[in-house]
């Protein structure tokens, strides 16, 4: 059931109704009966978020928009500035980025029991009260928003990961508070930067003073299912250092590419831990670079590699990786980007949801605390990060009800 928002918000909502008009007028939705203002706001907010590019490390504009949107709807917004980093954790000089924490201004203080969260970015060239979190960044390249009136699909960069989660969480939170279903003091919203590049936004929030939430609802594409867990993550770089020279006299130099390639083949065939719940660990050689030109012996080469861990602890896999590389050539260097983490088991005890496991990583490991952890959202991860990223208008609307159900369950209602 959709609730009509207070009249005080009606004027501010007209622009979002116009943004959502192509969807609202579709025969598919007309056949489902009249749409409430809440639904128009959902589709309008989603479109506005997608139309603002937010590649990782460039999330400033979409963060400012979201802060203004929530402030206009009675939320107090706090910004936590996070230094910009590249995909390997090196600080850069890009524009300021910030995490965004919001809670109803009517609440006497930010003492929420539930947190809704997600990421604000869309992709890197790298939740409710219960706590909701989503990241604001997205992966490149930017792809414009488009609604297909025949298939009733919305496409564009970030339509799934993770701006659908943001739009649905915000809409659910506003509805629950404005309708009086939950007290204003019960929930908060958190939208973080950098989830795609090491979780530096969530790490910064976790290291700062914040309430001891009872539940945190993380937004990621799960096909409207509750995730019971996700694989762990381990990222590293293998570097080869040779000696440059003219390619016509290869014996006078040492080819760094030729040093690196056998090690990558060994890693590609490396057996890493597996479990019944998560299946096999997988290793992806994601980026390779080496040399200057075809007629120059390359003096250096490297490869960036990501592992999705299905079992064991990161230290066990680190040892296996280093040993495999050293057996090929002891001169090769292995540098792990962080300590990584093993498989993450997640709470999935709310009735009315199908459950699943997912192979991607989230910010869940980076938020310290004794809270319950839920992972849920619209859309498929198989469409996210792709040139055909899309989701249906019906799934987007259904996710609002899913987030409401999770919040109410977390609050014991």
Q: Describe it for me?
A:
By secondary structure, the protein is an alpha/beta fold. Helix content is 28%, strand content 27%. The chain contains 9 helices and 21 strands. The strands form 6 sheets. Strands 1, 2, 3, 4, 7, 8 and 20 form a 7-stranded mixed beta sheet that branches. A 4-stranded antiparallel beta sheet has the order 14-16-10-17, covered by helices on one side. A hairpin with a 4-residue loop joins strand 5 and strand 6. Helix 3 runs antiparallel to helix 5.
In short:
By secondary structure, the protein is of the alpha/beta class. The protein has nine helices and 21 strands. The chain is 28% helix and 27% strand.
List the helices and strands and how they pair.
Blueprint: H1 10-24, H2 27-30, H3 37-50, H4 60-72, E1 75-82, E2 97-104, E3 114-122, E4 131-138, E5 146-148, E6 153-155, H5 163-178, E7 187-192, H6 200-206, E8 215-219, E9 226-230, E10 232-241, E11 245-246, H7 256-268, E12 274-275, E13 279-280, E14 282-290, E15 296-297, E16 300-309, H8 314-328, E17 333-336, E18 344-345, E19 355-358, E20 372-376, E21 390-392, H9 393-410
Parallel strand pairs: 3-4, 3-7, 3-8, 4-8, 8-20, 9-19
Antiparallel strand pairs: 1-2, 2-7, 5-6, 6-21, 9-18, 10-16, 10-17, 11-15, 12-13, 14-16
Helix pairs in contact: 1-3, 3-5, 5-9, 7-8
